[in-house]
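Email to the structure team, subject: Xylose isomerase model.

Hi all, the expression group asked for a predicted structure before they design truncation constructs. Nothing fancy, just the C-alpha cells so they can compare against earlier work. One-line instruction: predict Xylose isomerase, return C-alpha cells.
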Amino acid sequence: MHSGQLSINQATAETSGTDDLAVACRAAGIDQVSLWRHKYLGQDPARTAATLRGHGLRVSSLCRGGFFTGTRPEQEAYEDNRRAIEEAVILGSPILVLVCGPAVGGDIAAAESAIRRGIERILPAAGDAGVTLAVEPFHPMFLAERSAVVTLAQAHRLLDDLTDPALALAIDTYHVWWDPALQAGLDRAAGRIAAVHVADWLVPTPSMLAGRGLPGDGVIPLGDLLTRIEATGFTGPVEVEVLNPDVWARPVAEVTADVRDRMARLW
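Reply from the structure team: attached below.
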C-alpha cells in the first residue's frame, strides 16, 4: 500500500478510547481514522476533533447515518441524519456512511421506497455542508435488521434515481464479496466510490455481527478485490473495519501495527 492509503475504523478498536486509538495510529504510522458516532455520544464532537488534530490525525469517514426504516418515525430519522451531517462537518469528515435501514416485516420494496425518500430529503443538507453520503450495501443476512440495500446493484439504483453529486457508494469487502454480480457493479462504479471498508470472512463465522476477521485470516481474496476496486479509479483511503471481540481484547497498539503489516503484505 502507498503511504496515506490506510485508515483504521474505530469499530476495530471498539473497547479503546479515541485518545488511545489516536496514539496507537500515530505509532503505527497511520494518519487517518474512521469514527463512529456512539463513541462520542453525550459529548461535544468538537472535543473529539481537537483530540485527533492534536495527534495529527484526519477523519476519513463518519459512521453512521441512515436507518430510514425501522421503528422510528421518518421525521426523527431526518433530524438524526441532519445532526450526523453537522457532526461530520465539525469532525472534518468528508463522508457520512449510510446504513440504510432494514426491510421491516420482510417488505423489501417498501423499505427501498422509504430509503429513497429519506436520502432524497437529506441530500440538500449534505450538499450544502460539503459532506458526501455514502450508501453501504450490507450482506443479505442483515436485510431484516440493518439494511434492505444488500447488493451493489441496489445501491447503484439509488444513485441512478437520485442523481446527486453528494451521493456515492461505500464498499465493504465483508458485505459484497459473495455477490456473483459484483464485477458488473464495479464496472459501473467509476467515480462513484467514496469509501472502502476491509474485513475478512472467517470460516466458521463465530457471530453474524461481530465475527469478522482481520485481513488475511479468512476466505475473501482481498488483494484481488482491492485491486478490482482500485481499477475503478478509487484513490481514497482503505478503512480496516473488523468487529470481533477477540480483536478488541488485544492491546490497541498491537492491533494497529498488525493491521498495517497485514495490509502491506496483502495489497
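The longest helix spans residues 108-129. The domain at 6-266 is CATH 3.20.20.150 (TIM Barrel). Ping us if the truncation boundaries need rechecking.
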